[in-house]
Amino acid sequence: MSLHHTKHHQTYVTGLNAAEEAYAKASGPKEKIKLQAALKFNGGGHINHSLFWKNLAPTSAGGGEIPSGALKEALERDFGSVDAFKNKMNTATAAIQGSGWGWLGYSPTTSKLEIVTTPNQDPLLSHVPIIGIDIWEHAFYLQYKNVKPDYLKAIWNVINFREAEARFLEAAKQSA
Amino acid sequence: MSGQHTLPDLPYAYDALEPFISRQIMELHHKKHHQTYVNALNAAEQAYAKASTPKERIALQSALKFNGGGHINHSLFWKNLAPAKSENKGNGGSLHEGPLKKAIVEAFGTFDNLKKEFNTTTAGIQGSGWGWLGVNPQSKRLEIATTSNQDPLLTLTPVIGVDVWEHAFYLQYLNVKVDYLNAIWNVINFEEAEKRYLDAVGGAKL
User: Where does the Manganese/iron superoxide dismutase N-terminal domain lie (chain B) (predicted)?
Assistant: First the structure.
């Protein structure tokens, strides 16, 4: 957590600020286009990690507990059961070929909860992010080494389902 | 016959690249990560042999590319590393006078400049991937390239590959990728690199 927050996320913030300052000074389309990769990578890194910290919580603060309510109902409706949802999310996330993120997302077109992945630091654009899980090796390697499935199993103990539900209700309201 | 790949042995002991790459990393990297690519490549090839339609074959392409690339890249990697000369363990890190050194100076000005450019380019990969020094098959000159994830290097003939997936360095170097990239030059096997270079410039076109 310490490295992930104070080093990795900080680096994205610093990189994003530098890219935005350069973009503000850029004088032509070509210069602006050249800066797109830095804006996407660092911007995405900042967005993704900011969402991530908030969708985690200590077990003492409700992490891992899914309250009865709209989110739980939607998960059961769209995946059959909460366990089935977790399995599907873990399978999809573990299968990412490289670095990336696993997401539970709300589809504004189908009004359903769906599992989506994004590569590298690409932000989730096709869906409203409900829960994000970082699967870059820096997110788990020191503790879980190569055993990614153990990390994916463990993280459900600290997922902040109350934050997830707040995001879900907001997303459902926006597209109503 | 496909589906019969095996994990190649390391040409040195797991602790041979210390202090530049730790035994712990080498063990996990070889016995777990590379082994997993080998197993999954075999499974994908076996499935491909049984596939009866274009759609089924296309569906298997990403597994073949990811695991095939992983096997190719890591097999090249182990061989372009060697125990460090600076530790009196081998010839790693030592670039002697010869055709490779000449080509490096022609393409990059100095050996130090090659390292600088290579490290900057490789550190700039946005995600997982590999940094490469390779021979351009048309110009026969050395160039630096990167590939993402486990994509194999196809545009150049590989001479030196450096893994920058986080599993390659994180346990030892944490987030400080640049320290890993500086350190690894102490264990680059320039003899193997020169062999590949001479094959690439003397042999048939890619």
Answer: 4-82
